[in-house]
Amino acid sequence: MCGAIGELVTRSDAAEVAGAQETPPPATVDFTKQVQPILAKRCFACHGPDKAEGGISFAEQESAFAEAESGEFAIVPGDIDASMLVARITTDDEFERMPPEGDPVTAAEAELLTRWIDEGAAWGKHFAFEPMGNPEPPQVADPLWNENPIDAFLYKSLDDAGLKPNASADRRTLVRRAYYDLTGLPPSPAAVDAFINDDAPDAFANLVDQLLQSPHYGERWGRHWLDLVRYAETNSFERDNPKQNAWKYRDYVIKSFNDDKPYDQFVREQLAGDELDTVTTETLTATGYYRLGIWDDEPADPVQARFDEMDDLITTTGQAFLGLTINCARCHDHKIDPIPQSDYYSMLSFF
């Protein structure tokens, strides 16, 4: 879990852009990042998960490409002339223009939608639902950047954007980056001098290994995880009483990073540390995850407060472990992701 982080954050050839360079627009329109937000903002009120006026809904690919009640098609991949959507968002006829109320589609939004349809209207899926792959690293022009797969992918992304990386960092800059990235602390003058004067070919690798063995590594990087799981040592609300022994969970996270614990084990211990085949003090401590959220010790409505606590837990679990806003389905089917309201309450029953 932890070793990969060190490799990612301590690149000597920092991919920084020298000078101000304009990034050209992407050659292909990205549905998830560019198109779906426009459809949700401009169209979902009448043609979304809750309504399908005229038999048109842009919530799912099948319904978006289906024949409307009028016999026309809102979206015909590759054919903007046959796509009713393009005609309705670009017309000057106020009785035909969509959306009928509110702010009209901007020229930039219309251009994106038109270009997307012209390119074939690829309907992207959320990254969390895509199968894991093992792509071949690209071969790039600079042979130095082909030595490591991560470098090759970075270089290609920069090259595709018309950017070039800066030259290699000098050794003084490099040792400071390593210390700040891995431990969050500055190197001592003696440590800087020792690295500068170390002529060994693996001097930087040795430095990284040394820092990964430091207890400060877990303290530095464990903080990112503690932020994700909303770690706090008090309960919030007006009394904001302390959470007794919350520090034990904090120390568990730090130790897990320093021990390079496998991520799947790290997840299992927090979600079900008391149900594993082998239950230890450490796995029980991991389940402190469930008590990290805000807690009202004297709510006006105890039942409502209990469900709010569960919603906070579902929200955090969905975002931290799945990258999804599951909590949107508490009151209705999710507007963007394929998460029905029934799935929300099925997950709630697990907790």
TrEMBL record:
What's a single GO MF annotation on this record? heme binding
> Which intervals hold domain Cytochrome C Planctomycete-type?
43-102
The DUF1549 domain sits at 149-351
SUPFAM superfamilies annotated for this entry?
A: Cytochrome c (SSF46626)
Superkingdom is Bacteria
The protein's matches in InterPro entries, at most eight in alphabetical order, are given as:
Cyt_c-like_dom_sf, Cyt_c_Planctomycete-type, DUF1549
A Pfam family in this protein? PSCyt1
Q: What is this protein called?
A: Protein containing DUF1549
